[in-house]
Fold this sequence. Notes:
This protein has seven helices and no strands. It has helices at 12-15, 22-48, 58-61, 66-87, 91-122, 131-162, 171-198. Helix 6 packs antiparallel against helix 7. The model is unreliable at 1-6 (pLDDT under 50).
Amino acid sequence: MSTPVSGVPINQSEIEWRLPYRGTIGMGCLILAESAVFIIFVVAYVYYLGKSLNGPTPSQVLELPILGTICLLSSSVTAHLAVSALRKGNLRSCTANLAGTVLLGLIFLCTTAREWYHLIHDEHLTIKTNLFGTTYYALVGLHATHVVIGLVLLFTAFVFALAGRVKEEHLEKLDVLSIYWHFVDAVWVVVFLVVYVLGR
């Protein structure tokens, strides 16, 4: 606490300010750009919904991906816990939560792969079948691609943490990675509502 010339005390934490971590700014810009891309894909899906000249339709072949959704949303919690643990200097908890995040993300990808296998093999719905197939695989596939990218980065962080090479000074980097993962999860909420709830 300091005392200016006027005699009014000023809390030191209120006058100290530093530039945000550049990785956070970069991730913010990336999320803005990616959000625009996803908006285009979502609008395209909604626009062409019900305009296919032939089946199958969403109501005939899509089922609610409950398990995958629970796993993906839960992975946001473990990602947050990993960052919190590193902030407290608890590397063991950080490593465990990173492992949990990767595992939950992998389960989500497996449910997506199983859904696609069912649609292609049993329902004969491919990206060329009709407008629904084209926009569905484009939108869900775009999101799945982001999940894969996030999992590769999270797995890399997990390996480094397991090797004891993640320290408190890496907190900002891990925080940036968690922001990306939260973004991927938030996009899935939109995809889930548009494709599997409102679009059926």
